[in-house]
């Protein structure tokens, strides 16, 4: 029964977290999600120790929880506070456009600007 509760918590937390992604409402630091997955991991371990059918369900709960922790640990978000947000003032900088001509951010003052950064080389 405890392992089933762990599996239920893990599945519910995954569904809750995944439903936040399309609306870009995922928290920067998903502490509540991690706490729930920690509880699921613990309940799964208790089910594993209990043996029998509880062990299989416990392992499933532990795998779901461990995978969540793995993905969160490997997220590319650096530690610390996010310092840039929509509507912030654009800092002054100079760069080259795709034709190699110089561009300065000061020339965009008073206009809406969308900056896209691409990683890689072509």
Specify the structural class.
mainly alpha
**Distinct helical segment count:** 3
Strand order of the largest sheet: 1-2
> What does the main sheet amount to?
2 strands, antiparallel
- How far from one another are the termini? 55 Å
Shape: rod-shaped
- Helix content estimate: 40-55%
Please give the radius of gyration in angstroms.
22 Å
Percent of sequence in beta strands: under 5%
Describe the protein's architecture and organization.
There is one protein chain. By secondary structure, the chain is mostly helical. It has a domain at 2-73. It contains 3 helices and 2 strands. Strands 1-2 form a two-stranded antiparallel ribbon. β1 (94-96) and β2 form a beta hairpin. The chain is rod-shaped, with a radius of gyration of 22 Å.
Main attributes?
mainly alpha; two-stranded antiparallel ribbon; 2 strands; 122 residues; 5% strand
Write the layout of secondary structure elements.
Blueprint: H1 2-20, H2 31-50, H3 53-73, E1 94-96, E2 102-104
Helix pairs in contact: 1-2, 1-3, 2-3
What's the gist of this structure?
With 122 residues, the chain is mostly helical. The chain has helices at residues 2-20, 31-50, 53-73, and strands spanning 94-96, 102-104.
């Amino acid at each position: 029964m405890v392992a089933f509760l762990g599996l239920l918590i893990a599945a519910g937390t995954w569904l809750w977290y995944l439903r936040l992604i399309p609306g870009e409402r995922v928290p920067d630091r998903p502490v509540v999600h991690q706490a729930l997955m920690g509880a699921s991991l613990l309940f799964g371990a208790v089910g594993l120790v209990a043996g029998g059918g509880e062990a299989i369900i416990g392992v499933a709960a532990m795998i779901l929880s461990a995978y969540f922790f793995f993905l969160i640990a490997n997220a590319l978000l650096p530690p610390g506070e996010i310092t840039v947000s929509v509507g912030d003032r654009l800092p002054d900088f100079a760069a080259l456009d795709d034709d190699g001509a110089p561009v300065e951010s000061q020339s965009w003052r008073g206009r809406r600007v969308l900056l896209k950064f691409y990683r890689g080389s072509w």
